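As a warm-up, study this chain.
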Amino acid sequence: MSKLFLFLVLFCCASNGYASDPRPEMHALAEEITILQKYLFTENSFTALDSRQKVKNSLGAIRGHLESLKRSDIKDDVAMSINLEMLKQHIQDTSRAVDKGDFLYVKNMVKSSFQMCINCHTRKSTPDFSWPESDMTKMKEIERADYYFATRQFSKGKSIYEDLIESYPKTSSNISDIRNSLLEMAIYFAKVQEDPKEGAVFFTRVTKNKELPVYLVKESDNWAKEFLVWSKESKSKKDLKPKELLSKGKKLLEGDQFTLVSELGRSFHIRRLRASVLFHKILEDKSATQQQKGEALYYLGKIYSITSSNLFFRFGELYLKACIQENKKTEIAQKCYVSLESIVIDGYSGSAGTSVPEDEKNELSRLKTMAF
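Now compare it with the structure written out below.
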């Protein structure tokens, strides 16, 4: 589990095309991982005061490496800068939890970070590295699969996800694990392989398992249909330019209301994943205009606010904030602000009313001034 901290830096902050090779500095984190490993598996060893201090020191060293990465060429890649900032906040929050001795929260923070790695590491431009073997004997199957996806060992992770899904309910996996496995398989076929034909075959097979909850069967059926429609589209014989990528991404999202629970929302999930690939390509294309990058950030913010809604960190919000900061006093910045404001206020609203924390209000006010 503790190896995840190394993965976070390696996967979320590394991309082809940087002047300096990030691997030496990242590999230097191995010593910190060795220190962390013995403390994050059992609660008893973690609760001792001296062990908390050692964990805190290791997290501090990791933050130091992140600061060095912020000063590298990574800062010129908008998407990578967002990932790096998100990781930095995540490590800071984890460190504060260590101070409080809240082991369960620390463990959950580490586990929740896998999705951040998977999201970033399914980018086509992310390089493969040689990863050290990890002792995963104490990990659940779902955690091992997440580990493999985060380290780009997709075939190993895919095998576990498939087994969890297809052997249900014979396995001890809970519905949450099955749901997560389905989501990761959708990412695999839509983003990693971009293979709609196999995606359609897989999710059609999932619908045959009548032991699954009805809503998961219906969702899988919708996804199978989306993959099937995609498989019948004609393939482009050339690399698309930013303008074409933007146009295609927008077309995929036509009519998307960005809702979680509607039938429309379920069927749009695959299209959202497809569109996210196109918008990331725009951010990576040096020929893209500022306006095109701004629109890509806007749509990624909308997409990730839905597809990452079950995670601790607020992925979509960071893309919307970057959109505002990179495009001050423009129409696209204003669109990003309106979406961001809506997401933040909705997130702090419930049956008891709306209660937005003061620091969130101040941040919204700061961004509003940038946008308008």
